[in-house]
Automatic annotation (TrEMBL):
It is found in: Cell membrane. Residues 9-74 form the MrpA C-terminal/MbhD domain. This is Energy-converting hydrogenase B, subunit D, EhbD. InterPro entries: MrpA_C/MbhD, Nuo/plastoQ_OxRdtase_6_NuoJ. Keywords: Cell membrane, Membrane, Transmembrane, Transmembrane helix.
């Protein structure tokens, strides 16, 4: 049952990240998707894949997305 909930969270947060107009919210939703996927991998008894997904999918990718958005924002003028 928990794995089904995690799959739903993963899919919903990925879809919401795709349709989001605010790029910072999309980056946060990408982190939710990666975190839920990491927990799902742990439940499937793949701790090495879960650890990699947690580091890359839930931490590094959202941080890089936020940094890219902050670096490329235009001034108000």
């Amino acid at each position: 049952m928990l794995s089904i909930i995690l799959m739903i969270i993963t899919v919903l947060s990925a879809i919401l990240a795709l349709i989001q107009k605010d790029l910072l919210k999309a980056a946060i939703l990408t982190g939710f998707s990666g975190g839920a996927l990491a927990v799902l991998f742990q439940l499937l008894l793949a701790p090495d894949v879960a650890l990699t997904q947690a580091i890359v999918g839930a931490a590094i990718v959202p941080v890089f997305l936020v940094l890219a958005v902050k670096k490329t924002q235009r001034d108000g003028s």
